[in-house]
Specification:
heterodimer, A: mainly beta, 6-stranded mixed sheet, about 0% helix, about 50% strand, B: 4-stranded antiparallel sheet
Chain lengths: ~110, ~120
């Protein structure tokens, strides 16, 4: 069975600084999908960034980028130029096939400090 | 922009009572998911539909939970009887099966409190 681990329950970062959230996962699959979801307080879950395992190039979406290390089964999220609106729970997630369930990690609570 | 709709947003019920949640996915999305998110944890799948058929309900407590999607569009999740441990956020998500867009779009959720 696939599992997703996030070892940082809480993190904080100064506004405009850079922060990296860690994630490791366990799977025996060779092709799969990885995601970072953001859940702001009392607001709905939204997708931040996605990575297909067959792609070697790390995904980037504006201020958000990932460091995907397939052999190490590591998938970290870097947020550059942190903004107050980045304050949220961040979930690392795994999906085996494109229409399978998403398996979420326990989450990292990120606070951006003015 | 199209969104997944859920109602009610909040529900307080006493244990042993019945409760139901409704979800309307994005139009045209054939795949619908119900997740349960306990406070401080990540969501976990309860049931997945493809059109009106159940694809995965392996984690659904079938003695008290039921889910249906009769016409392959909106869906209802029911709990009867509710227990204190059912207090959680119930999230609905949908995705567009058969396209390159495999993203799951989440609704705002229903926060259930069982007293």
């Amino acid at each position: 069975a696939q599992t997703v681990t996030q070892s940082q329950p809480e993190m904080s970062v100064q506004e405009a600084e850079t922060v990296t959230l860690s994630c490791t996962y366990d799977t025996s699959e060779s092709n799969y999908y990885l995601f970072w979801y953001k859940q702001p307080p009392s607001r709905q879950m939204i997708l931040v960034i996605r990575q297909e395992a067959y792609k070697q190039q790390n995904a980037t979406e504006n201020r958000f980028s990932v460091n995907f290390q397939k052999a190490a089964k590591s998938f970290s999220l870097k947020i550059s130029d942190s903004q107050l609106g980045d304050t949220a729970m961040y979930f690392c997630a795994f999906m085996k096939t494109s229409y399978d369930k998403v398996i979420f990690g326990p989450g990292t609570s990120l606070s951006v400090i003015p | 922009e199209a969104e997944v709709a859920q109602s009610p947003r909040y529900k307080i019920t006493e244990k042993s009572q019945a409760v139901a949640f409704w979800c309307d996915p994005i139009s045209g999305h054939a795949t619908l998911y119900w997740y349960r998110q306990i406070l401080g944890q990540g969501p976990e799948l309860l049931v997945q539909f493809q059109d009106e058929s159940v694809v995965d309900d392996s984690q659904l407590p079938k003695d008290r939970f039921s889910a249906e999607r009769l016409k392959g569009v909106d869906s209802t999740l029911k709990i009867q009887p509710a227990e204190l441990g059912d207090s959680a956020m119930y999230l609905c998500a949908s995705s567009h099966y058969g396209t390159s867009d495999y993203e799951q779009y989440f609704g705002p959720g229903t926060r259930l409190t069982v007293t």
